[in-house]
Automatic annotation (TrEMBL):
It comes from Vibrio rhizosphaerae. This is HTH-type transcriptional regulator BetI. Pathway: Amine and polyamine biosynthesis; betaine biosynthesis via choline pathway [regulation]. The keyword Protease does not apply. Keywords: DNA-binding, Repressor, Transcription, Transcription regulation. Residues 8-68 form the HTH tetR-type domain. The keyword Transcription applies. The gene is betI. Residues 31-50 bind DNA. PANTHER family: HTH-TYPE TRANSCRIPTIONAL REGULATOR BETI, HTH-TYPE TRANSCRIPTIONAL REGULATOR RUTR.
Length: 198
């Protein structure tokens, strides 16, 4: 967590520099020296405000998660509260369009996922993000499938989002947002039909 007093203009600059360096050399090669050169600041500033690379990586992931949440929240605000199917699609789109598909963001996400398995703080951030996604989906599923099954369907959609995103991130052609929506909607439609005909 950045220390109080860091100029706000520096945080986005350092976050962007961190993502740029991770994109070029990967997480393990992303040294404080390379990041500070990319940002045009001294390594001492990063160490002072973030306590080193670990703290800067945490702030970078928080920034990505905040933007991710902001995009989805803004999309949901544009839709009526009872347009549950459309709101689920807004959540899907928020994972496959714009900021989330920029090369440096994708590579930082991948690094974050792998690193979070061994780092308690990054793992906590990942769990917060996962719980937020499941919560959003459950809210929208409440009138589409019977309540007891909404959690299971939410987990299914979340697994598809993560899996399709990961496959797209590792594909030289990138993430196909239209295909993602088609696959996930096919799953959702089948779940709605199945659970409403029990």
């Amino acid at each position: 967590m950045p220390k109080v007093g860091m100029p706000d203009i520096r945080k986005p600059q350092l976050v962007q520099a961190t993502m740029n360096v991770i994109e070029r050399v990967g997480l393990h090669g992303a040294s404080i020296s390379l990041i500070s050169k990319e940002a045009g600041v001294s390594a001492g500033i990063i160490n002072h405000y973030f306590g080193g690379k670990q703290g800067l990586l945490e702030e970078t992931m928080r920034a990505i998660l905040r933007e991710h949440s902001r995009v989805i929240t803004a999309a949901l605000k544009q839709l009526p509260r009872d347009a549950h199917y459309e709101r689920i699609n807004a959540i899907i789109d928020g994972n496959f369009n714009g900021f989330q598909t920029e090369s440096e963001v994708v590579k930082t996400w991948l690094a974050f996922w792998s690193y979070s398995m061994h780092d308690p703080q990054l793992y906590r951030l990942q769990r917060v993000n996962e719980k937020r996604l499941i919560s959003h989906l459950k809210i929208e599923l409440k009138t589409l499938v019977p309540h007891p099954q909404s959690l299971s369907v939410a987990h299914g959609i979340a697994a598809l989002i993560d899996g399709i995103w990961l496959r797209g991130a590792l594909n030289p052609r990138g993430i196909d947002a239209a295909l993602a929506r088609t696959i996930i909607n096919d799953y959702l439609d089948k779940q709605i039909i199945y659970y409403n005909n029990l």
